[in-house]
User: Fold this.
Amino acid sequence: MTDQLVHVENLTVAYPMADGAVFRAIDGFSMAVKRGQIVGVVGESGAGKSTIGKATLGLLDENAVIDTGGVMLDEVMVTRLEEHAFADIRGSKVGYIYQNPMTALNPVLTIGEQLIEAIEANTNKRGQDARAYAIDLLEQAEVPLPEERLSKYPHQLSGGLCQRIVFAIAISAKPDLIIADEPTTALDVTVQKAVLGTLVKLTRQENIAIILITHDMGVVAEMCDYVYVLRHGKLVEEGSTAQVLSNPSEPYSRELMAAIPRIDHKIERFAVPGGLGKAEDRERAIDYLMSRKADAGVEGAPLLSVKNLSKTFTMKATALKAATDFKAVSDINFDVFPGETLGIVGESGSGKSTVGKMILGLHKPDPGYEITYKGHNIDDLTSKAQKLAHRQSLQCIFQDPYSSLNPRMTAGDNITYALRAHGVLSRAQALELSGDLMELVGLPRASARKMPHAFSGGERQRIGIARALSFRPDFIFCDEPTSALDVTVQAELLNLMKDLQDQLGLTLLFVSHDLAVVRQMCDRVMVMRSGEAVEIGACDKVLVAPEHEYTLGLLAAMPRFRPEEVA
Amino acid sequence: MPVDTTTADIGSPSSPDKPEPRFLENVAKIFRGHPAAICGLIGISIFIFLAIFAPLIAPQDPYDQTRLDILDGLLPPGSTLGDGTTSLLGTDALGRDILSAVLYGLRISLFVALVAVIVGSAIGVFMGLLAAMKGGWVETVIMRTVDLKMSFPGILLALMVLAIFGTGIDKVIIALIIGAWASEARLVRAVALSELKKDYIHAAQLAGLSDWRIMGRFLFPNSISPVLVVLPMSISSAIGAEATLSFLGVGVPITEPSLGLLIANGNDYILSGKWWISIFPGLVLVGMVLCINVVADRLRDHANPYLRGKE
Assistant:
């Protein structure tokens, strides 16, 4: 038994494409993992990170071809093994942890059945022995009340608990290696911290090596000994975590590190190259956008004022259950002043998006609320024209770029269709405006003719911004606009939003679960938990010296990306 | 040089000037490697060609009573008629050439089914979209009507309609439309409901667009694909339904015989050994429905992403 566990040598995995070309998901990649070492593989989506893990376990798609090189696991060339030979490796020598624990577990079997099945398949423990060992494993994975959990089904447990059970299954045979593919991406930060802690403890205890595949530099900084940076299937840089994170030598890694939002201090702009459009077109767009009626209400008064905002969702009665009320938002009060950015942070299910949707008028709040916009109570608007003007003055940038554009309209039509439908613009004017707005958000005007599917996620989000801007709004609700994007794309988009806000004096309500993004974007922040506002105040105060212990907990749980300290 | 990832793919293969994939290329892609479906497609093309050009191809005009000679009646396939021509598929009791009758019958069967399915689907799609968009009592009324319609056996409903309105090509089409719209409405409503949850619909609402515009430009184009996939299947079942009604004598009038009516005409003679009168229209009917179903199957599999991965 040598110290060297995994040795990836010049691995190239290729996929033949429909048009005859070959797509190299992994291109000449080499990597070495020692026993007990935690190695991070980082890169943006599509960089080929997951392919490495899959190649090690023989889980590549049927049409994938290993062109050169291979993966040596404990002196066995696993990439040359026959399918049946993998059965001896999967589970017993290598464990796999998936991104989404809810789908990794079988929903129709109990936790106990799944765990004991894994134990009996990969160890020589049977019956009561296996059961006792299962309880022991759950205890090690820090699952409270392990005996009770054995008879539960996955849907009865939280995502964090499910991931701990996946850990227990993965370590049950005491493998040499665990491949963790984005193990905490689907979890809230507070859960993520505890879950990662457990994973490190378990593997250190058994001297298990981990290949951690992730896009989150904070997680890498906290967990890994050694890091590989991947881009387009090629190795960009490797080195100890401290060296790569604090002093990256390659331009791409430097850009990657610069794009990571930091919570400890606010920076003016991220140091990433910004795609700016033609100056002339951008100016025309700015002129158009600035020509909106300057009606911000009374000087010094809030643009938007929200009082006693609540929302109760009623679950319909079924044969088995009486109707139940779920209070998504309860009694929220806040003001947003012209030109500022108010952030709302909270974990999933805290009601932060619901607040925004009620302000936009997409959800009807519970009675007893009062929303004042530009000095008028929005329920006092009577004429059709007033209502339309109000509606268009508040716009939204949505979370999921893949569902926020009409897939059957060109990008340009997506931006200006409504203005044409309302008879505000002629066909020619609409074409002109959509082109100008495309340039303003950093896309070439010619691409306005393309359909949404031809754009990447970040580009779609830019089109979504252009659409929101087309109405010359004063207020934009940003509903986690970058949570589906890679970190460099996120940085570019956040830069763009800051630029636009500076130029146009927009007022933003910015919802996010990422405290660091909020720190970079917002002037003030409201922290929400289970529908209630926990704390509201200036970012510099709430995110630095919070008063409420919940905020404190959120801050402590955040994986810190502080290269100085790693070094 | 650090490449700007957000603009990196502009100018690459998926660039603005590349035309969207052509219709024919798409069709070729769907059918490549599926010989049965290709045969079906060829079969459908032949049937449609025959139906359109029946008056030019048919040796005889079966509607022209003056041309018929009772002496030519009930001749087996390949017989020579009184005017010296050869009847390839034989003649019926009136001396009508079976080949000609089948070609004209095909024309009527296809016409009736196509009109009924297209109009029926249009009504169904509209009702489904309306139910999804409006919700409330509108949805309740539409969907309960659908349930009511679905609880009748199709043929019984058609018989009731024809009993009320009388027979005739237009009445058969109405009966088939009433049979066709409900399942399309149910299908479209389900798809539209899931589309309505997507953010592009919310964006349209924030733009202050009316429900009708959202329905027409946003919901409709994004909910229509499953209907297009089941359309061929609906056509083949409409052909079958029309044939059944005509066979029962409540469908198309005797002066414009469809395939079903031709089969019925031969029914009286089949036991006396005059098999050709019923068999040939029957074979054409079966062949056409089979071809359409094979193609429809292929389209359905293609539309199912799970099966597509297995190919």
Remarks:
- Chain A has 21 helices and 20 strands.
